[in-house]
Design brief:
The protein is of the alpha+beta class. It has two helices and five strands, in the order H-E-E-E-E-E-H. Strands 1, 2, 3, 4 and 5 form a five-stranded antiparallel beta sheet that branches.
Length: 168
Amino acid sequence: MRNENSFSQQNGATLVVGLIMLVTITLLMLSAFSLSGSNLKVVGNMQFRNEAIASANIAIEQTIDINFATIDPANYPNAIDIDIDQDNATDYVVTIKTPLCLKATLAPANVAALSGINSTITNSSNYLTLWEIEATAQNQATGASVVAKQGIGKEMTQSEYLLSLCST
């Protein structure tokens, strides 16, 4: 009798240990599944963020090509549709604020054309201007949004400078 009782107690203890291990393994699997889902969301969000940054940069590059002497503040903010994945559907709408002139100085003289002259002489007909372009890219489907700022330098003739927002 004693041996049967001892055998039953050992089986009961083994069963309890087995159940505890089963519950522990189940909890570990659930937490691993939860963490993998969270990591997938993080990776997806980084992809949407990088796409938004790329879209803003594309719009800024298009804005750099305009003639800064003809900027009309009434036409801003300017919205540019960007198809980042090239499926013929707009993925991001990028809003460009009016380019802001930060600085304008007289351009130095062309030293190569003025042989023997000091390079600190200024050229009274050209200006070196520094502009800031701010773009906000938004994706309505994902909610991704980013603001990108880019500074660019442009050389302008005196007539372009006088027509631009830099001279005001």
